[in-house]
Design a protein that fits this description.
3 domains; mainly alpha; hpI Integrase, Chain A; 3-stranded antiparallel beta sheet
Length: about 400
């Protein structure tokens, strides 16, 4: 049943100025709901038969225009609800028209998204959102502001603030893309008018610089592997780098999660956490020796990154974050000692795996030169379909 909407002078209510309010009346399914349109009129100036102001009504034209706009908004909303076959009541119709946006602060939407990511076990994304939330809070001193307060001037001030902290374009871009994602969520939730969206004119794409090559040559790799470690931490860091390099550029988090169940018929078989792709790789002899080196019957994991103590996803994420930070710090120091051409991190192993194979003549159909973003998924698809003989031949090129 369609609703009917009209405007009337509510003469049964007399205000202190002797006037009565003009009310929107919505009737649906036998129920009537009234809502003031924000103005009042002397009942003597209202034609109750035609439900409109009389000719002698002061501000007659302005009142009529307001009534027309109000009725237009209600009738348009009724049409949209009918077309989409959405149920509504007289109360919900008035609320939808009069309060189209449910205002939430930037802090509220950010915190809701962080909680949602945590619940979905997307802990790395949750950490990124927390990082952006903290950065924005430090810049603005608080985030108890509405999204409409974030305009181009505000964004430029934030960018300058970040640059004064010597952040690189890519680091600034990550923060801005996170903020943009939260702003888009706010628009979806109708927390802000889309017309306030500042990212139409402020282009986040400008905050991107070409990433420098992050791959070592085969000679550099062998120099690193042959480095004489002076501490357990140094040796462990080198072994993790080497294992990643020899095991298809496996990510640190996937290394941490490996157990004996991931080894079958001299193959490393695991599902990549980031892309959910099933990976199958022959185990290089040197990689096998590294596995055996850290084998511990009291630990279900292949490497002493995680242990049976780490039960929840949050505990695992915190532990992996801690160890990868220490490992990268150690690798950087070793790289400087060896005078390697690029800063050494665990991710360098991933790029080096692809680049060394490519330079050794391995077909692009077997392994792509880059393992980042768009090409990463392509690489995983190819890895899925490799024949063992192809992989064994390819892996021979690594050392």
């Amino acid at each position: 049943m369609n609703a009917t909407v009209n405007v009337l002078c509510y003469k049964s209510k007399v205000l202190s100025n002797g006037e009565s309010p003009l009310m929107i009346r919505v009737s649906k399914s036998g129920k009537r709901t009234y809502k003031s349109i924000g103005i009042s009129i002397n009942p003597t100036h209202w034609d109750f038969d035609k439900n409109k102001p009389k000719r002698n009504c002061p501000d007659k034209e302005q009142i009529e225009n307001l009534i027309i706009e109000k009725l237009k908004a209600f009738n348009q909303t009724i049409l949209e609800l009918n077309v989409t076959q959405k149920e509504y009541t007289s109360d919900s119709l008035i609320n939808k028209v009069e309060n189209p946006f449910t205002l939430k602060t930037v802090a509220t939407v950010f915190q809701e998204q962080i909680k949602l990511l945590q619940t979905s076990q997307k802990l790395n994304s949750a950490l990124l959102y927390k990082y952006a939330y903290k950065s924005l809070s430090n810049f603005n001193t608080h985030l108890n502001i509405y999204f409409s307060d974030i305009d181009i001037v505000w964004l430029k001030r934030y960018e300058n603030w970040l640059r004064n902290k010597n952040l690189a374009d890519n680091s600034i871009g990550i923060l801005f893309r996170t903020l943009r994602a939260v702003y888009n969520t706010a628009i979806e939730q109708k927390c802000v008018n889309p017309q306030s969206y500042p990212f139409r004119n402020y282009k986040v794409s400008k905050l991107h610089q070409q990433t420098a090559k992050r791959a070592l040559t085969k000679t550099d790799i062998n120099t690193l592997i042959n480095y004489k470690a002076t501490t357990y931490r140094e040796q462990f860091s080198i072994d993790l780098f080497t294992f990643s390099y020899l095991a298809g550029g496996i990510n640190f988090v996937d290394i941490a999660l490996l157990t004996n169940n991931n080894i079958a018929n001299n193959q490393l078989v695991y599902t990549r956490k980031k892309t959910s792709k099933l990976i199958k790789l022959p185990i290089h002899p040197t990689a096998q020796s590294i596995i055996e080196k850290y084998s511990n019957p009291n630990n279900p994991y292949l490497f002493p990154i995680l242990s049976s103590y780490h039960i929840t996803e949050q505990q695992k994420a915190n532990r992996v974050h801690k160890i990868i930070s220490k490992t990268n710090e150690c690798l950087k120091s070793i790289g400087e000692k060896l005078k390697l051409p690029i800063p050494l991190t665990t991710y360098v192993a991933r790029h080096s795996f692809a680049t060394v194979l490519k330079r050794s003549g391995v077909q692009t159909s077997i392994i792509s030169e880059s393992l980042g973003h768009s090409s990463e998924k392509v690489t995983q698809i190819y890895l899925d379909s490799f024949e063992n003989s192809q992989l064994n031949k390819a892996l021979d090129n690594l050392l």
